[in-house]
Design brief:
five-stranded parallel β-sheet
Length: about 150
């Protein structure tokens, strides 16, 4: 029985589509949704964002900027859950996305991971490092539902 669905999101249209699918499924199954946003630690090499790129037009640490953006798109999914009457929680973590998603799915005892994919070929995903491809092949115990963009 599916009682918890983990929904990793990077804010893309594909991730939003997967989230909509997950919320609809959770409503039908009376399951809870865990919204996970992972700030890729590789993006934290630089320490500041240019003023023209920030919402407040100030220089701020890039990690704060990324957390704020992640909270924004996770909040949109939370609103969708609330509107549908689906119990939900938001988690924002920093690390390697594949590792964090798999670890969080196990920690939260999720029964299903629903995530988007941009539809790259297996070779392209291997070379480019697709997160969905990595999650599918990193852990074989938790089912993964891929929603194509």
């Amino acid at each position: 029985m599916i009682s918890k669905i983990l929904v990793p999101s990077d804010g893309s249209k594909t991730a939003q589509r997967a989230a909509e699918y997950a919320v609809d499924l959770a409503k039908q199954l009376k399951a809870a949704v865990i919204i996970l946003s992972v700030i890729d630690q590789r993006s934290l090499i630089a320490r500041t964002a240019p003023a023209s790129r920030t919402a407040r037009h100030t220089i701020e640490p890039i990690e704060d900027y990324l957390k704020e953006a992640a909270a924004g798109y996770a909040g949109e999914i939370k609103k969708l859950c609330d509107k549908s009457g689906v119990e939900s929680a938001i988690l924002i973590k920093t690390g390697h996305p594949v590792e964090v998603i798999v670890k969080e799915a196990k920690r939260s005892k999720s029964n299903l991971i629903v995530m988007g994919s941009h539809g790259r070929s297996a070779l392209s995903a291997t070379v480019l490092g697709s997160v969905s491809y990595g999650v599918i092949h990193n852990d074989k115990t938790i089912p993964v539902l891929i929603v194509r963009g």
